[in-house]
């Protein structure tokens, strides 16, 4: 599904990603771990198409197409979803209005008619239940006055609504208490199918107890320096990053 | 015969240069501003310029005890008496002399008048790389009855230099006097300047003050205007930023009673990118006093990434006190963060009640809350003697015997 | 900011300049027009064409003489070539003046115009329950729902009809809120106004439907000088809407209206405007000069609420105001003002607190794009006797592009110590991170801006009646199409 080859990117003169290679197939869950400043968030931003970053070398292929040629919204239409580390507030726009707009835009890009309001509401209700979201939440303004946990839950709710093929969860677990983490993880697990894939970006092993990855990669100084199965995460937890980075 | 006729007559007998004559004629043509001038909408000079003034200062001797009475107790002092520079300190890397003429933008007819006829004032030139350790105090005393006096001052701060100045204009003539005070400040690259004005003058004194500050890159300039008294005060404070990474800060307190009047006019001209300005003016109005605030922030087209903040908060503490406030933003660049806020209100009744229920008398409770209102400005004063004086004056004006220094 | 960003900004700015005014069509209707220019004779002609009583003619002549002595104001932060007042046609009426019992009798051309405007009368009648008065150029051409309203004793008609049929009411209130000599434009309007709407809600009556007026300048070179007079008698309640459009013309057209509202004790008036006069082309040619005086007076416990969405006009000069004369009265002002290309707007409000315990709220949202300038100018005056009064003002500006300007000029005057005033203003641009977030959720930049702007304006749009809110939202989108990235 996603093939990243020798990806290099940075801001202005500073190189942050120094040659990333990664392949993600449908049905898989990958975890990318690494200390602060290793380039985890840069990687997710580059995949989503944030314009602040200049991409030098390398390629990112998504379902046979060059992702780097696309605008951020095109990438979203093709099925790339990024759960933001710091979700943005949009004053005056309700959650339901926002989701309706993004869903309609996606359907438009795919040549589909907008979902009838009745079906949309039904779908919202189902997904809300999945994530234990209370009523009344839909009419609140996008992320305005949301607690940290509510913001993250809102991200996963949007993910559920947009049904992406590739979801990148950027530090979705940070700042969540254990109950909120369970709810979010539970939601992510229920949304897993054999046709979609997930990349978890985190520096805590804790999340991986709830969402079990197929592969774990360690990112350090802009490169993936070690890959392995889920047991790698446990080893990291036990021994710390120094264990690998010093090698 | 009003002041303008007086001045016209006076000028005839002066040997003015051609340029000065042109400026003076322009002043005569415009005359003193009236309420129909937008910048003087709420401030009337009508009565003030109708009075008779003595244009010729009579020099008096000054006693050290008087200087000490009004001084903050700072070592380095510049002292003027009736327009004469009588005392100036020796400071390494700092040249202090009397009046020396210079050109500066004339903001209005009043600054034209100053430019044409002023013959008194100070010149401070600070060399490069000098950090002036102790603050410099500048005292202006007047003993001449019914005088109209003009000062024209200039401060040039060399690159990387730092200085703190406190200015105090004091009338001791026990008569109605008017001062037209003009100060030009050049802040060169990477300078740090703090200028403090104590305006605690007599009921009959009138002051029109204009300060034009020109900032170069990386400079930080702060002006604190502390008004505790005066019959009539108009302060024009203008900052012009001409280099990146400048910061202009201005704070003010106006604490007025009787029928005192104070008008603070500030203008920050953001001409270059990546600069900041912060403005905080607090007004407290007792008895029949009147306040005016006019703050303008201008962000020019190429001045992106500007962070400008302005606040004007006012307490009206009596039935007859009034305030007119005009905070303005003029923005021509898009990548800026500018905000202003203005509030007018009273002391919180519930807080007053709460304090009284704890046994604090009403005057004291009011004073504490008023101090709390003004504290943001007072606490930020960096010269301890000045902070101390402000606290004392505040307690004195509010008629309480409280020590706010804790 | 990266180059890519810059590039999209430029592209988008390019797009703005090509987005067109969607109401710029003219209607081919025969008109009865008098020669251009203004003189005492013209004033007399207008009055006689309308068969006015002597007192009305006197009122006009008095205003004309006052106007001759007055100067066009220049304190607003706008610059434009002052119109030549002798080059304006002061009266133009569609020749066939339909006195309509049924709207089906309307001239088919005119009906088409209304359809293009999206206000099919029938539809409005059926669906929206809105009574409409339509003023084309200077003359009121159709008033719907007259009879339904009459049952409740509500008078809703053109001001010309009111002068004929209800002279006592017109005489009593006309010019009481906006005196003839109030300003240059109000004097001009008082001399030459040719029509407008009149509305009277009797004591204790709640108007059962929204009342609405549509204004349109059609004839080339004509000025439009409409006059609106709305009286809400004690304890009554009314919501009133006005909409404005004009065809594209190369030359500037002049619009100088006067609106007077009178809210007697315990009355409640809500007055909403969606102003979309032709703004001129991208280079600033043509467009309407919109110089309007709107003011209301509130008696005891009364309330006046102004809501405006201003997207059109080349130059706007407009300050809907409230005189809070009675104790406990309330004034509100909610405004969205959008300027794009070379438009200039100087708009805001005046809240004059005279009575005790009076309250006012001001929410003004400015959006500037292209080469335009948007100004908020507002006055909050609390008089000595207006004890315990409150004002809250919030003025926000949003900038799109680096060639536009946004300015805030509030005047705050407080003369007693039991009142509280709070004023806040901010200026900002649309955040790049907000746009990226929307992009990531599949929402294109254009759409994202529309979404963010709508959110930004929500506090004001929410004040509009339902049917208008939708129209206003669309207008915002059209006015800002592709303004920035």
Structural account:
The complex is a heterotrimer of chains A (247), B (406) and C (485). Chain A is α/β, with parallel strands linked by helices and 247 residues long. Chain A is built from 9 helices and 13 strands. The radius of gyration of chain A is 18 Å and the shape is globular. Chain A starts with a strand and ends with a helix. The mean pLDDT of chain A is 88. Chain B is an alpha/beta fold. Chain B has 2 domains: 59-348, no CATH class; 349-406, no CATH class. Chain B has a 10-stranded mixed beta sheet, covered by helices on one side. Chain B has a 9-stranded mixed beta sheet with strand order 3-4-6-8-10-12-14-16-18, covered by helices on one side. In chain B, a hairpin with a 2-residue loop joins strand 1 (76-81) and strand 2 (84-87). In chain B, helix 2 packs antiparallel against helix 5 and helix 6 crosses helix 7 (362-378). Chain B is globular and about 70 Å long. The model of chain B has no long low-confidence stretch (mean pLDDT 93). Chain C has one domain (3-430). In chain C, 26% of the residues lie in helices and 35% in strands. Chain C has helices at residues 3-18, 40-49, 54-69, 108-116, 121-128, 146-151, 159-165, 167-173, 184-192, 432-440, 445-456, 458-461, 466-480, and strands at 31-33, 92-94, 130-136, 139-143, 155-158, 197-201, 210-216, 227-232, 237-245, 252-255, 258-263, 268-276, 287-298, 303-310, 315-318, 321-324, 330-339, 344-353, 359-369, 373-382, 390-400, 405-414, 420-429. In chain C, a hairpin with a 2-residue loop joins strand 3 and strand 4 (139-143). The longest helix of chain C is centred in the first third of the chain and has 16 residues, at 3-18. The chains are: A alpha/beta (247), B alpha/beta (406), C alpha/beta (485). Chains in contact: A-C, B-C.
What low-confidence regions of chain A span 5 or more consecutive residues with pLDDT below 50? none
Please tally the β strands of chain A and state the result: 13
Q: Provide the CATH top-level class of chain A.
A: Alpha Beta
Strand content of chain A: 25-35%
User: Helical amount among residues of chain C, as a percent range?
Assistant: 25-40%
The number of domains of chain C is 1
Average pLDDT taken over every residue of chain C: 81
Largest sheet of chain C: 11 strands, mixed
| Biggest interchain interface, per-side counts | B-C, 35 and 33 residues
Poorly predicted spans of chain C: 1-20, 96-102, 119-130
CATH architecture of chain A: 3-Layer(aba) Sandwich
Based on Cα principal axes, name the global outline of chain C: globular
End-to-end separation of chain A in angstroms reads 32 Å
Number of H- or I-type helical stretches of chain C: 13
What is the spatial order of strands in the main beta sheet of chain A? 7-10-11-3-12-13
Mean pLDDT of chain A: 88
């Amino acid at each position: 599904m996603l093939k990243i080859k020798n990806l290099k990117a940075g801001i202005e003169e500073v190189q942050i990603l120094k040659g990333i290679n990664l392949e993600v197939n449908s049905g898989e869950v990958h975890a990318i771990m690494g200390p602060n400043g290793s380039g985890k968030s840069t990687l997710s931003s580059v995949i989503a198409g944030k314009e602040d970053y200049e991409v030098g070398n390398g390629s990112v292929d998504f379902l046979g197409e060059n992702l780097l040629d696309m605008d951020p919204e095109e990438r979203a239409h093709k099925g790339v979803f990024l759960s933001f580390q710091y979700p943005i507030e949009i004053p005056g726009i309700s959650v339901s209005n926002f989701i309706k707009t993004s869903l309609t835009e996606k359907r438009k890009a795919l040549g589909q008619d907008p979902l009838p309001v009745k079906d949309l509401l039904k779908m919202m209700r189902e997904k809300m239940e999945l994530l234990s979201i209370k009523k009344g939440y839909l009419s609140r303004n996008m992320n305005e006055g949301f607690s940290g946990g509510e913001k993250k839950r809102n991200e996963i709710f949007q993910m559920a609504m947009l049904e992406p093929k590739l979801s990148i969860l950027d530090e979705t677990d940070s700042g969540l208490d254990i109950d909120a983490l369970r709810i979010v993880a539970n939601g992510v697990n229920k949304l897993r199918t054999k046709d979609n894939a997930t990349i978890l970006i985190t520096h805590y092993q804790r999340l991986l107890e709830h969402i079990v990855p197929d592969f774990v990669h360690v990112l350090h100084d802009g490169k993936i320096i070690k890959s392995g199965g889920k047991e790698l995460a446990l080893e990291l937890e036990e021994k710390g990053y120094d264990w690998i980075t010093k090698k | 015969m009003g002041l303008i006729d007086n001045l016209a007559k006076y000028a005839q007998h002066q040997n003015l240069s051609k340029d000065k004559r042109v400026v003076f004629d322009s002043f005569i043509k415009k005359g003193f501003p009236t309420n129909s001038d937008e910048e003087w909408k709420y401030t009337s000079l009508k009565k003030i310029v109708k009075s008779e003034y003595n244009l010729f200062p009579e020099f008096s001797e000054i006693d050290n005890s008087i200087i000490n009475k009004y001084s903050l107790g700072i070592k380095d002092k510049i002292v003027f008496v009736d327009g004469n520079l009588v005392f100036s300190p020796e400071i390494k890397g700092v040249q202090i002399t009397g009046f020396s003429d210079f050109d500066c933008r004339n903001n209005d007819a009043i600054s034209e008048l100053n430019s044409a006829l002023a013959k008194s004032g100070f010149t401070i030139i600070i060399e490069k790389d000098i950090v002036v350790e102790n603050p410099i105090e500048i005292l202006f005393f007047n003993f001449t009855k019914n005088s109209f006096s003009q000062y024209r001052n200039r401060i040039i701060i060399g690159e990387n230099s730092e200085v703190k100045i406190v200015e105090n204009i004091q009338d001791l003539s026990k008569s109605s006097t008017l001062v037209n005070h003009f100060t030009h400040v050049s802040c060169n690259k990477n300078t740090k300047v703090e200028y403090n004005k104590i305006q605690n003058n007599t009921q009959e004194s009138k002051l029109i003050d204009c300060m034009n500050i020109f900032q170069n890159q990386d400079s930080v300039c702060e002006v604190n205007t502390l008004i505790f008294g005066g019959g009539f005060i108009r302060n024009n404070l203008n900052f012009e930023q001409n280099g990146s990474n400048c910061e202009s800060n201005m704070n003010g307190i106006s604490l007025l009673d009787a029928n005192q009047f104070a008008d603070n006019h500030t203008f920050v001209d953001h001409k270059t990118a990546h600069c900041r300005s912060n403005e905080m003016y607090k007004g407290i109005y007792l008895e029949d006093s009147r306040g005016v605030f006019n703050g303008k922030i201008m962000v020019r087209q190429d001045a992106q990434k500007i962070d400008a903040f302005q606040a004007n908060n006012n307490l009206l503490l009596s039935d007859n006190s009034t305030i007119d406030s005009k905070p303005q933003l003029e923005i021509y660049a898009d990548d800026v963060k500018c905000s202003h806020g203005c509030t007018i209100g009273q002391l919180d009744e519930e807080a007053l009640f709460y304090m009284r229920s704890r046994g604090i008398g009403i005057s004291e409770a009011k004073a504490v809350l008023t101090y709390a209102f003004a504290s943001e400005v007072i606490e930020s004063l960096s010269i301890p003697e000045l902070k101390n004086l402000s606290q004392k004056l505040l307690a004195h004006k509010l008629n309480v015997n409280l020590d706010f220094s804790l | 900011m990266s180059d890519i960003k810059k590039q999209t900004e430029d592209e988008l700015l390019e797009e703005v300049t090509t987005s067109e005014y969607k109401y710029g069509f003219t209607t081919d209707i025969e008109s009865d027009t008098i020669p251009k220019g203004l003189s005492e004779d013209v004033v007399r002609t207008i009055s006689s064409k309308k068969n006015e009583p002597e007192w009305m003619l006197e009122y006009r002549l008095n205003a004309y003489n006052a106007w001759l002595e007055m100067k066009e104001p220049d304190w607003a932060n706008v610059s434009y070539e002052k119109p030549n007042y002798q080059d304006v046609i002061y009266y133009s009426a569609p020749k066939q003046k339909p006195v309509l019992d049924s709207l089906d009798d309307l001239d088919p051309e005119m009906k088409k115009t209304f359809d293009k405007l999206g206000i099919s009368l029938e539809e409005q009648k059926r669906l929206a329950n809105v009574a409409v008065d339509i003023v084309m150029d200077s003359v009121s051409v159709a008033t719907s729902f007259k009879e339904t309203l009459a049952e409740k004793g509500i008078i809703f008609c053109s001001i010309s009809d009111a002068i004929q049929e209800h002279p006592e009411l017109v005489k009593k209130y006309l010019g009481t809120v906006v005196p003839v000599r109030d300003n240059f434009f109000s004097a001009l309007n008082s001399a030459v106004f040719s029509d407008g709407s009149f509305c009277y809600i009797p004591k204790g009556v709640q108007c059962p439907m929204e009342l609405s007026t549509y204004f349109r300048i059609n004839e080339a070179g004509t000025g439009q000088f409409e006059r609106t007079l709305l009286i809400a008698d004690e304890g009554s309640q009314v919501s009133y809407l006005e909409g404005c459009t004009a065809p594209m013309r190369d030359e500037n057209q002049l619009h100088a209206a006067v609106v007077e509202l009178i809210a007697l004790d315990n009355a409640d008036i809500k007055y909403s405007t969606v102003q979309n006069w032709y703004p001129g082309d991208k280079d600033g040619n043509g467009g309407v000069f919109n110089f309007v005086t709107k003011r209301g007076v509130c008696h005891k416990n009364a309330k006046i609420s102004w809501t405006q969405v201003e997207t059109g006009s080349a130059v706007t000069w407009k300050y809907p105001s409230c005189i809070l004369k009675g104790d406990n009265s309330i004034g509100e002002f909610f405004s969205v003002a959008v300027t794009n290309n070379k438009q200039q707007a100087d708009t805001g409000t005046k809240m004059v607190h005279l009575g005790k315990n009076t309250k006012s709220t001001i929410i003004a949202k400015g959006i500037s794009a292209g080469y335009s300038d948007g100004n908020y100018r507002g006055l909050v005056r609390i008089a000595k006797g207006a004890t315990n009064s409150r004002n809250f003002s919030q003025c926000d500006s949003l900038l799109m592009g680096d060639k536009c300007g946004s300015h805030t000029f509030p005047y705050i005057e407080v003369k007693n110590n039991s009142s509280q005033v709070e004023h806040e203003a901010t200026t900002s641009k649309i955040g790049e991170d907000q746009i990226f977030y929307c992009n990531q959720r599949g929402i294109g930049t254009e759409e994202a801006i529309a979404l963010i702007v709508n959110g930004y304006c929500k506090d004001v749009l929410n004040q509009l009646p339902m049917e208008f809110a939708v129209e206003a939202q669309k207008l915002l989108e059209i006015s800002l199409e592709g303004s920035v990235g």
